[in-house]
Amino acid sequence: xxxxxxxxxxxVLFSLSFYTVMRYNKNKSIKTNGSDDANNxxxxxTDQLNQSTAAxxxxxxxxxFKNTTNSKAINFKLKTLDGKEISLSDFKGKKIFLNxxxxxxxxxxxxxxxxxxLYQETKDSDIVILTINxxxxxKTVESFMDKNKYNxxxxxxxxxxxxxxxxxxxxxxxxxxxSEGNLVSKKIGPMTLExxxxxxxSPKK
Length: 205
Hints:
By secondary structure, the protein is of the alpha+beta class. The chain is built from six helices and eight strands. The protein has helices at residues 2-33, 38-53, 106-122, 138-148, 161-165, 193-200; strands spanning 64-66, 77-80, 85-87, 95-101, 127-134, 153-157, 173-177, 183-188.
């Protein structure tokens, strides 16, 4: 009888311990991934970008993913460095070169001079160069831009909502949108000026 009682007691304690651990893990998961905890979500996305960006050196420079489904670009609203709110729809009828980046990202910094050259060559054309900085404040980004004398347009995706909408898993990532608002192609990793020109003069415009 004592042996049976002991076995039952052990089973009860085990069940309670298992329940406690499962409940803790569930709450922890909700805290990390819940939509009402922007800070934790932001940290998670940034960590993923850090890990993925570190692997960019293994990605072929010519690896461009073509969109064959004619899906439309997702509209968004963000603020620029001067506090002005812009939306993707502001550039309706124009070709758009989106570039997702951050100042801490070495491959991003590598292609910034090329991106500036592209901006200078296309600023009076129907091609819009719009870069989207992920998770950094205006002061940090503005200091970086001033130090390097860059002039291309920057929008601040502080909570990385736009990055999530566009399934950005590594930076730099560039996306080309045609004049009809269709997603044409996507490139992960840094590009040279010539590669950027080829990217924005895709046969499908």
